[in-house]
Amino acid sequence: MNSNGYWFSIITIITVLIVCASNSLPTVLQKQNETELQQQDMKKAESMTVFCGSVNKPAMEEIVKLFESETGIKINMIFGGSGTLLSQIELSRKGEIYLPGSPDYIIIGNRKKLLIEDSDRIIVYLVPAIITPAGNPANIHSLKDMTKPGLRIALGNPETVCLGLYAIEILEKNQLLEEVMKNVVAFGASCSKTANLAAMKNVDAIIGWRIFHYWNKDLMTYVLISPESIPRISYIPVSIPVYTKDKVLSEKFIDFICSSKGKKVYEKLGYLTDKSQALEYAPNASIGGEYKLPDKYFELIKNGIFTR
């Protein structure tokens, strides 16, 4: 091979290498970009914030551990009254999940445009009941019994706690609102705090959820309310705040809660996972919807029948 042919071959090889490298460069850069985006997504999804009504607390603490174990995603749980939590979402402008104790607050959240429309799903059902300290020392067996002079009654705060709304609704329907309110000595700031008032014998009875008894059978007894006296049954919904930083992750967590694995946790702890189970306690009751506090309630508060 003469020198001209030799250099021609070298130049040809170099040209081919340059062309190949330039052709592969976009692919390499694309892969690098995809990796960086994936890493950013992982970093973004390292944690999520769940605003959770305290009626869910026993089940959700266990479900969260399972989810964190399977995904490695850290979940920050904030428990409280459903109305208080919705206000926190509004003020903080954050949150991946909103899990109140009744659909009333989903309706309010949608009205205020704080939740992604149609993102809510039903998890389990809740039935109202009278909850007393273990053994029912005050011998309370009906709503009417709660009007006896000298009794100490507690309700969830109806202005911020879903349980309180249902209690006022039940008392109003049965024309016992004013009589029972005369005995009310405390409003609980959440479902769990209201339940604790009965468990710790600070009151003779509360209007709570049937599930409270299963939280601690040694400390609380439940008395069923007559079916015809219950106007409405609640359910625990879950929804996605508009401020979620990762809608896909929010949906993934909701799927996990509603899966057989999540439902088994609720069922094991005594929650009612099927609508037919709940209707056995009040066949003619409506399910879900929204209740607005009556003027009579505010009149009673204003007139000092109960001082918070």
UniProtKB/TrEMBL annotation:
Molybdate binds at S82. One of its GO terms (biological process) is molybdate ion transport. Gene3D superfamilies: Periplasmic binding protein-like II (3.40.190.10). The chain crosses the membrane at residues 6-25. The keyword Translocase does not apply. Pfam families: SBP_bac_11 (PF13531). Signal peptide: none annotated. Keywords: Membrane, Metal-binding, Molybdenum, Signal, Transmembrane, Transmembrane helix. SUPFAM superfamilies: Periplasmic binding protein-like II. Belongs to the bacterial solute-binding protein ModA family. This is Molybdate ABC transporter substrate-binding protein. The lineage of its organism: Bacteria, Candidatus Schekmaniibacteriota.
